[in-house]
Amino acid sequence: MPQFNEMYQGDQTRPPYAGLEAWMKAMPADLRIQKQAEAEALFRRIGITFAVYGEGGDPDRLIPFDMFPRVFTHSEWAKLDRGIKQRARALNAFLTDVYGRGEIIRAGRIPANLVYQNEAYERAVAGFVPPKGVYSHIVGIDIVRTGPTDFFVLEDNCRTPSGVSYMLESREMMMRMFPDLFRENRIEPVDRYHEALRRTLMSVAPAKCQGEPTVVILTPGHFNSAYYEHSFLADLMGVELVEGADLFVDGEFVYMRTTEGPKRVDVIYRRIDDAFLDPLCFRPDSMLGVPGLMDVYRSGGVSICSAPGAGVADDKAVYTYVPEMIRFYLGEEPILQNVPTWKCAGEEDLKYVLDKLPELVVKEVHGSGGYGMLVGPKSSKEEIETFRHKILKDPSNYIAQPTLSLSTTPTFVEEGVAPRHVDLRPYCLVGERIELVPGGLTRVALREGSLVVNSSQGGGVKDTWVLAE
To answer: Which intervals hold domain Circularly permuted ATP-grasp type (predicted)?
Structure first.
């Protein structure tokens, strides 16, 4: 299957990459190795690592950084911008609906059991509408490209999408190492993301808020795989990074312990899962949350971003209905298409998937991070048969998609420059308005021929350029 190379069309360099052709050819191997070592040293020094759970030894790894940027034209990005914002609006409308009257279910557009029996559906917030009617405040939409104009949404992340620190640090790294590139090319900035995030969070403060809202980031602590990002964003926004023990409930409000006494908190950007937010409402054994937090939330004393229960919108089976959500709530046709998907819960789809297992990508409905999935064409017969038994044991836990011919971008490898598969995660902010910085996290599958871009599975990151008009 032919693969779309984002830099080359036949023997010709595509216009977006024209400014990088001479730079690439003029970089000798020794300079490239030197710059790569410099980047790794900087990443290590400032602590850009991630944890891989379930492995022995030191869990912190340096995330691989590729110096060859990925480039989008202004018009390419304009289409993505419109499509991503459309999707974020529809997903939030869906969440408002299913925690309210459930009109889309009454209309027969989506099965009731897929929503109300979903483990991510939180009955504790049914009937409650969060401030400004926003449930998912940071929407990370994973996008793949298969041709010059062909973009597909691979999945939606409506809870706590991670990776934005890599987007920002990759740009900082490139500007530090190759300042001439930024003088010679007109590249849209991404460094205002933290301002937009702070603006978004403050815009959804509860009605009981008095004066300027106090915003905090709630982290599970330094053992969490994304802890660097939590502290990084707190520093950039100028807000406090807190753990559950730093907060307490008193009456109708949440307070933060400080050296100057209790301080009321209005907005919590939570980076912990629903189950651990409040031991009085969810898991009673949670040591990460705040007892009584959900009572304050439901009474309008604090905003939680993203809202508890938002995860029902990024379930991989619910994902298949997002185009229908766009038509139902917005009265529009989807700008960005889904990847064709088979739901193993359906008898016909299950039969098709089992027949075509060596050709498909199969994922757990609630899986993430590249775990719990089968890439048929890259798997052994034994792996395929093992996965077949898993599917038969619980068909509703799996969906399947075709093995797309993902686009490639030039990537620095040991032998020089070679094409590697990439995807893209832009970060859409939803508050009083919807904002999207021109760029995102490009993840790259560093292993030759690999389609798995997740850092936990050997993937790396690179800077994402959007050219100004």
So the answer is: 69-445
